[in-house]
Amino acid sequence: MKELKYKPLLLLVVASMLVAAGVWLFAYFRVKHTHEHRPIVSFANAKPVLVAQAGELPPELKEQNEGKWKTWAQHEDNVVRTRLEQGALDSMINLLLFGTSFTTQPRVITMNDFGDPVVQARVTDLLEALRNPGNNERIIFLRNLLRSRGVDPEKSSRAREQPGNSAFRAVTCVS
Question: Where are the domains of the chain?
Fold first, then answer.
């Protein structure tokens, strides 16, 4: 019966580890492109909408001008892109732990430590799938995500044996 008593605590610890890993992954893979130029709707194009929705605008846009619009629009663009990146990295963790399309290993229901043989086998299988994704859209998406962050799983056929390999570090950082 003690096992059932501690099950919610164990689930909380595992969930906390996953959240921490996701935050770390996001920080680790964040590239210097955060300030790259992205096209933002011009103030001239946005002004009719801003005027029509004047009563619904955030405080930053109550007094409309081009400078305030650019600052607000760029900030909101960055917030949305950050959330999208975090979701993609969370997807990688979820795929590693629970996915079945790239491995024959059982799903990881509870993870006591990263040294667990099932987790290690799943990491190996995921790395292999990232190198040879076939038509697996999820794996292709993750491979492209990693490549956009400067990580190429195909650079080495022996990624696991090379501790400096960034693809291996990317996948194994859930520990």
Answer: 2-39+76-172
